[in-house]
Amino acid sequence: MNKQSIQIALAYMSVVIGGGFASGQEVLQFFTGYGLIGIAGTLVSGLMFAFLGMQIARMSSKMQANSHKEVLYSLFGARIGWVVDVVLSFFLYGVGVVMLAGSGSIFAQQYDMPPLFGGVLMTVLVMVTLCMNVKRIIDLISAVMPFLLAMVLIITTYSIFSYNAPVETLDAVARENNETVSGNWFVGALLYASFNIAVGFPMLAVIGGMTQQPKAAAVGGILGGLGLGVLILLLNIGLFANINQLQGIEMPSLALAGRISPMLSVVMSLALVCMVYSTAVGMFFAFSARFAKPETRRFKVTSAVAVCVGLALSLGGFSKLVGTVYPLLGYVGFALILAIAFSWVRGRSSAKALKAELDAAS
């Protein structure tokens, strides 16, 4: 394992684990709302993250891809790839809008400030960051991850051991009082992995393309995927253990932190802002890169306009946007998963055929 593998893993995790995950709202709607069986869903998603992350990173490294479009065209062909790229770009823009709404919810819940304040603050931070070069953006996103990891581990560990209701009661409350993205836990798990792969795909493809060692890129994808699975599992258990005290809350993990200590709640709010920031940067970067070359004046103008329009759209509310945009993006992501799986099967078949020819020749 080398430095490149670790950087890919951390960047992969940071882009996927944004405000929706860190706030607990994603996990609540995709896993916890199904009750105990939601734990099985987190395992399904974690394994999918590892496999898909490995394939995307390895493919882009072999191609030395400069853009996710190159990988898309390789998977789907030029015509269908273009269609998928356009649809994906606009859904990623929707995730960026959700992040701006999430920033507003953090400041409203923690500091009793108008949601617009948090949205405007995040808009300014994202616009400034997108004026930097690509490598600095990737370094910033990777640096945020250890901070959030420590916070999630502290809060979930405490929450798991401090539950105050029978498991049967918690299971009933989780299933009866929370909205889920689907009527079936397995479909919910597939949708979660699907939409997050769609979210992480553009940045993961770019990072993988910057790595000249396909094996190292693949290891980074696997590590990042497994790390995501562990974090989802821990947060899901922590939310489930306290689900009877989290009804109607926009930022469940922030509420859990407040139960431990007011100071920890403040620190967690800062961690949430950091993760909302990292995902917002990744999403608006991917969207703007679809229309302009990064680091050019046109790119900066496109980014500024896109983020400002996103601020206006974010006024629809965080939890409502999570429950609407993310499942729809999940269905789009299914096309990506099928194409990646087909590419993997085709690659293995070609390798076996080549090995058979070599064995026959010898």
TrEMBL record:
The keyword Membrane applies. The keyword Ribosomal protein does not apply. Signal peptide: none annotated. Keywords: Membrane, Transmembrane, Transmembrane helix. The chain crosses the membrane at residues 34-54, 75-101, 113-132, 144-165, 185-207, 219-243, 263-287, 299-319, 325-345. InterPro entries: YkvI-like. This is Membrane protein YkvI. It comes from Pseudomonas lundensis.
